[in-house]
Amino acid sequence: MSKGREVKPHIGIFGRRNNGKSSIINVLAGKDTAIVSPIAGTTTDPVKKSMEIPGIGPVVLIDTAGIDDKGELGNKRIQKSLDILKIIDLAVLIIVDNIIGEEEENLILSFLDYNIPFVIIHNKSDLVKLQPEFKNAIEKRYNCMVMEFSAATVTDNDQLLKVLAAAMPETAYTSNALVGGLFKSGEAVLLITPIDNEAPEGRMILPQVQAIRDILDHDGIVMICKENDVEDFIRKARPRPALAITDSQVFGKIGNHVPDDIPLTSFSILLARQRGDFQNYLKGTPHLADLKDGDRILILESCTHHVTCDDIGRHKIPSWLSKYTKKELDFDVVAGLGQLPRDIKSYAIVIQCGGCVLTRKQVVNRVKAAVDAGVPVTNYGMTIAWIHGIYHRAVGLFNTI
User: Fold this and answer.
1) Quick check: helix, strand or coil at residue 223?
2) How many whole angstroms separate alpha carbon 363 and alpha carbon 356?
3) Separation CA 369–CA 306 (nearest Å)
4) Lesser CB count within 10 Å: N end or C end of the chain?
5) Are strands 90-95 and 57-63 parallel, antiparallel or unpaired?
6) In terms of Cα–Cα distance, which of 361, 358, 354 is closest to 383?
7) What is the tens place of the pLDDT at every residue in 160-188?
């Protein structure tokens, strides 16, 4: 499952089979959007539903399989449910009968590990009331809200909506500026935008559009030219650009045409700083110089897309990296939140895309396993800058702010 282009808060609904996860989603949606059945295990795979929640706004609710599922197939279903921890902003754990067992405790530990805020809903309270002693003990132990609820008899869900709104982190709505802070109000920023096979016909690629909007939001002047016009454009430009940003794929060529007194970086590196694990990228990128024959590289694409012969992640980076290192390297490419084909420790380095359609939390969590395992991580743009020998210039701008 990939968050894709739905850059809105994601709420994951977890709990044991038949605890009423789907029923609570239907209460929130105000209609039967999830299948409800007294048969345990009705929800087999995570199911997304876009909706509007009063007090929160547009969200994506994700209904998951039961955390107590059984058998080999059940374990796979549980793993798929756990995979969504990488993309959610808030978790809701549904319990009944005043019970928190090993399954719930392990899930809560995962919430804490991924730094996901969560609330606990004691459902079916029309049958078994939430005991005050149990509620107090759980709230004290896990520092979370525990709420009594009954999806079967609810007539007013205002309290549930208030609890969810209060628990939703601010980071689900906000992000750091992409370009703002790198120039002063009234200064010009030059965007150097190649038009190639990957550029959508009649439109600009998303990072370029995001950069334009961010520059304007921060009272800057936007200048745009194609890569073949850079040298002549800068010579004639008034005012002179305070910053130049280019596509990673033409970094080597552009670096020779942008004067040294104009800071130069790439859209991908800006995205890495805004949304990615930038400090670990800075630590990991130099490991590209240490690759040896037989090393395996993991390339992480954040979204699925049509693959062309000019695809940057699947074709260009592997080709450039093999030529740069002069080594026999192996590459695995995984799109979206697809499962890794092998253990993370089997990789010499992980190279992640810019994540232009994801939130920072999702991009960071995508490489969390590698960081935890001590496997170096980097980013498309930083990799390309390193290969072309202009990495230090491309990231030098960020050492002065």
Assistant:
1) strand
2) 9
3) 27
4) C
5) unpaired
6) 354
7) 988 998 998 877 766 678 899 999 999 99
Tokens of 31: 């209609």
Contact 373, 345 (CB under 8 A): yes
What is the C-alpha end-to-end distance of the chain, expressed in Å? 37
Prior bond of 286 cis (ω within 30°): no
Structural tokens at position 364: 């960071």
- Residue 272: phi and psi, rounded to 5, are -60, -40
Contact yes or no for 305/263 (Cβ under 8 A): no
Give the whole-angstrom CA distance, residue 49 versus residue 26.
Answer: 10
Q: Which residue has the higher pLDDT, 35 or 110?
A: 110
The per-residue pLDDT for 4 is: 37
Q: From start to end of 247-361, where are the E strands?
A: 264-266, 296-301, 330-335, 349-352
CA angle 9, 15, 19 (to 5 degrees): 120
Alpha-carbon separation of residue 285 from 76, 100, 377, 385 (angstroms): 34, 43, 7, 10
CB atoms within 10 A of CB 279: 9
The half-sphere exposure of 234 on its side-chain side, counting CA atoms within 13 A, is: 25
Domains annotated for the chain, with CATH where assigned, are 10-172 (3.40.50.300), 188-270 (3.40.50.11420), 278-392 (3.40.50.11410)
336 pLDDT band, cuts 50/70/90, is confident
Q: What are φ and ψ of residue 299, in 5° steps?
A: -110, 120
Closest CA to 99 of 133, 64, 134: 134
Backbone angles phi, psi at 352, to 5 degrees: -110, 145
User: Token match 């809701």: residue?
Assistant: 92
